[in-house]
UniProtKB/TrEMBL annotation:
This is RNA 2',3'-cyclic phosphodiesterase. Its EC number is 3.1.4.58. A motif (HXTX 1) lies at residues 42-45. HAMAP family: RNA_CPDase. The keyword Disulfide bond does not apply. Residues 8-88, 98-168 form the Phosphoesterase HXTX domain. The gene is thpR. It comes from Streptomyces mobaraensis.
Amino acid sequence: MRLFVAVVPPPPALSQLQSAVAGLHSLPDSGRLRWADPATWHFTLAFLGEVDEAVLPDLTERLGRAAHRHPAHELRLAGGGRFGDRVLWAGADGDVATLSALARSTGAAARRAGVPVDESRPFHAHLTLARAGGGVALRPFAEALSDFRGSPWTAERLELVRSRLPGSGVPGERPRYETVRSWELGG
Ligand code: 2AM
């Protein structure tokens, strides 16, 4: 199964971001972006890819231990940015150092369970809002979010999420996510 590990902001924080993102839909080319469903917005801490079911007991044990080693921490959704003209994202500020440390531990836990998580790219806290196929400049979208600052919230849980890719072949259909396990931070 295809898995990733994430922190999901609470509904009030997501609604604030949704209001800010609503303003972006009036920008030119907005209709050419593939917008992520706000119900699935999250910060990916580690992308595990295809994982054999046999690995799950060891993986979940190790992820649970990683979650317990890091405290709950305060974050805000803030600002926006882009990875080239491919991905538009919302950022975080606050105790991003703890979130980053949690992401590193999560990757290490997965690797110890035999899941080859890429450690070459440093963690960059981002919540993907939209993807572009090419030919759309994302800079105006990122700039429109630069002043956004949501209210503080506490990241309290680490979630192991299963991603089911669309099988229908219908263009624009998005993956479905389902939380397989979650752990309280600090615990
Ligand atoms: P993103 O947050 O940067 O878009 C589920 O696919 C999640 O895993 C997405 O949120 C996606 O990241 C993240 N992810 C990281 N690396 C990925 C990869 N190589 N393929 C697909 N998703 C990846």
